[in-house]
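hey can u run this one w/ 5-amino-5-deoxy-1-O-phosphono-D-mannitol bound, need the structure tokens asap thx
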Amino acid sequence: MCGIVGYIGFREAWPIVIKGLKRLEYRGYDSAGVAIINNNGFNVYKKAGKVSTLEDFASDKDRSGSIAIGHTRWATHGAPSDVNSHPHSSNDNRLHIIHNGIIENYSTLKEELISRGHEFKSATDTEVLIHLVEEIQKIEQIDLMEAVRLALNSVIGAYAIVIIDRENPGQLIAARKGSPLVIGVGSGEYFIASDATPIVEYTKNVIYLKDNEIALIKPNELLIRRLDNVIQTPLIQELELKLEAIEKGGFDHFMLKEIYEQPRSVKDCMRGRINLKDGKIELGGIKEYADKLKNIERIIIVACGTSWHAGLTGEYLIEEYARIPVEVEYASEFRYRNPIINEKDVIIAISQSGETADTMAAIEIAKEKGATIFGICNVVGASIPRITHAGVYTHAGPEIGVASTKAFTAQVTVLTLMALYIAQQKGTLPVSKLTSLLTELNSIPDKIQTVLATDYLIKNIAAKVKDAKNCLFLGRGSGFPVALEGALKLKEISYIHAEGYPAAEMKHGPIALIDEKMPVVFIATKNSSYEKVISNIQEVKARKGIVIAIVTQGDTEVKKMADYCIEIPDADEVFLPLLATIPLQLLAYHIAVMRGCNVDQPRNLAKSVTVE
Ligand code: M6R
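ok here u go:
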């Protein structure tokens, strides 16, 4: 969490940094701050609230200068406030730092620094780090890069940092461990950011700083060392990201744009991976493990949040087609048990951002125990694809709305392909069945388009239930993860309390909640549990609950009972999550907009959860 941006070069830095911070607000939006250097001196502006609040605050102040660092914060240590906003400064106010991550041993370091006369203004861990750098530099009489290197060697935790020195304004120092940092390479200028979105319109050439690397950046010079002082040769890569992909493109919100992008993103995810002619799947990213897949005895899926819900659909798919037992684990729980894992196990780690701290920790644990780790990730070049043995990108394109939408359907698409790929290697599916499944999968983008055409109806339903205090989402089989995901979407962006349950579990407790004010959303499509779900709908109606049902096109039975129905095209049960999730995303979106919520940046959340 937290977004950081830096610029050094010949342009005015303020607009670059502010625009960059706005692009990174998905990483946190509790407060924002900028430190900027010009010929007349040095200015720091910090404000609690969004980047736009900082922008308003500084609008009548001196914002000139061509060297600057900026930060948008997701608070961990210290409440969101002006004083806890970054940049933080050294005791003598000479050095200034922006930081994404957590310094775990900050309290010990802080006590020691206080005992040596340091005074702290904020409650943050970050301020401790800059005081430490200051102290080391003064005692050792060394340059800033070396002082930062020594300080980082005594720090435990995760960080991406950029430091600016008001007495030596021609340079920036950046470093990373566990939090992402990208350096954009221009001609006579450099850009630094948590991801490439603030950089893409200025240069396509980037360097992904690696863990334990520290960079000295001047307008015409870049020097990278490791923390053990070995000089590194930077690898300049070309960005594939396009500017249009990170703009709203006429939609009111990124979330709505991303919901509407799903026919395209699911197609992109399948592109080049399905050979319909021969009934085959090609997954280049895990190809070299094809033989191993024939003999695996167990798959463990680790993920968090929406990605965990995608994992549940993966369990269903892999067990159904590849006949391998699958366990789906919250990464945060898995990492703190002593999980029983061996070299025959395959772990699939799912993450949109590729930076989720718990998922990364789970991967490291499974790796130590000898398992083979596959990643399913959206952000190219993120940390998770770097630490896994192999993997498959989802290619959904940048997802900027904090609520995950197109990333979920892309993850489910990849899991479908993986399940069928493993089945293909193991020979658990006849080619004819594989071909018919692939043909149907290929038609899913068009079917998603059909679901999107019901948006106006979903908006009407949203208007009827927008004032609910609670909401239940119920589904069975592959409809259960859909119910969980529908509930998560609603609660995270509209702040209506929502729970997802397997429909049959309702009578074991949640049924007590049902009254005439309670909307209950059913995944009631025509599949193997259709009749059973109908019984559950009747149980809700008998208690006067408001039933909203996702049904198969042409359904007549559920329509007799439900208060509102949303039709989706018929599809094999295994593809249900790819279709039934879409109306739930739209329902949550419209309800949240009608309640005046900030759908793209819901309170307390951040897109990349880089703290545990
Ligand atoms: O980037 P990841 O997929 O690892 O993120 C995991 C969760 O934080 C994420 O899926 C979260 O639950 C969604 N943004 C909710 O919509």
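The longest strand covers residues 95-103. anyway lmk if its weird
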